[in-house]
Design goal:
296 residues; mainly beta; 14-stranded mixed sheet; eight-stranded antiparallel sheet; 1 helix; 27 strands
């Protein structure tokens, strides 16, 4: 049975994604990554709790070894308050070095600690809380088998023609100034395609999601939909989960790793190009396409 996250929960964060991850916990949208945004000095450290409740346990856990990150992470288990719409589930939170301890009571929005980067992160991924939900009869330490998540907030699909100018860039990514958020702070938006919003790493993660389709996760015969963007076929969605085709994404005609797609309410929203092998200078005009790998 799916867990619905109310608007009051999601509105604490500037961005979120159900599918933009290579880890099985996100398969079918069974976990959500919540991005709180940046502090005044540019750091992203505050970790607002998604729910009010009691800390059940904190522990240090192993993370995949990466040369740019520690080999450990932190797990926080929360029991939502009885008054919470999420009562009766256990909340699993990763990527936060806790300043709370077992038995502590927290309100929704209280900081749980300091956001950290671990080996679970690709180098282009921004700091965030990874949040999942378990039934009382499930092992709370495991990620697989977590409950699917529904959104209690609408996400507005934005048209994007695949073009934009580089607004900011790092060693492994570049962010375009398009599509433009029409109403920053007031609503969540995402890149629109086929009557929905695309969520996921295209195509550098195995699949993605097509949100805002208006279909139940428990439909007996979820419809299959071919998902395309600007005439480029991306894959097939069964229910809301997309299996990408064998694709190559290009920027100005040259291959890149992919495009990071998510839902956001901040004014800095724009398509994020994943390009660890290429460098795009700020101000560069870019055209993005997704083509069948057989065409290259």
């Amino acid at each position: 049975m799916a867990v619905t996250l109310p608007e009051a929960v999601l509105a604490q964060y500037e961005r979120f994604s159900l599918y933009n991850s290579p880890y099985p916990a996100h398969d079918g949208g069974c976990a959500i990554d919540c991005y709180p945004g940046t502090l005044a000095d540019g750091r992203t450290t505050a970790a607002p709790s998604p729910v009010a409740g009691t800390v059940r346990e904190t522990r240090t856990v192993r993370a995949p070894p990466k040369p740019y990150a520690p080999d450990h992470d932190h797990l926080i288990l929360l029991e939502p308050a009885a008054s919470s719409p999420l009562a009766g589930r256990t909340v699993r939170i990763l990527h936060v070095e806790p300043t709370v301890a077992a038995g502590d009571r927290v309100e929704r929005g209280d900081s749980l600690g300091r956001l950290v980067r671990a080996g679970f992160f690709a180098p282009w991924v921004d700091n965030h809380l990874h949040v999942g939900f378990r039934r009382p009869d499930q092992n709370p330490y495991r990620a697989s088998g977590s409950l699917p998540i529904d959104l209690g907030v609408s996400v507005r699909p934005l048209e994007w023609d695949g073009t934009g100018r580089v607004r900011s860039a790092g060693d492994t990514y570049a962010v375009l100034d398009a599509p433009v958020h029409p109403n920053p702070g007031a609503e969540f938006v995402g890149v629109g395609a086929d009557g929905g919003v695309i969520d996921g790493g295209l195509p550098h993660y195995d699949g993605g999601g097509l949100l805002e389709r208006g279909e139940s996760l428990e439909a007996d015969d979820p419809a299959e939909t071919v998902v395309s963007l600007n005439g480029d076929r991306l894959g097939v969605a069964t229910g809301r989960t997309i299996a990408w085709d064998d694709l190559t994404v290009t920027a100005n005609g040259e291959p890149i790793t992919g495009v990071s797609l998510f839902c956001a309410r901040d004014g800095a929203f724009g398509a994020k190009l994943i390009c660890p092998d290429r460098r795009f200078e700020v101000g560069t005009d870019v055209r993005v396409r997704a083509r069948s790998s057989d065409e290259r």
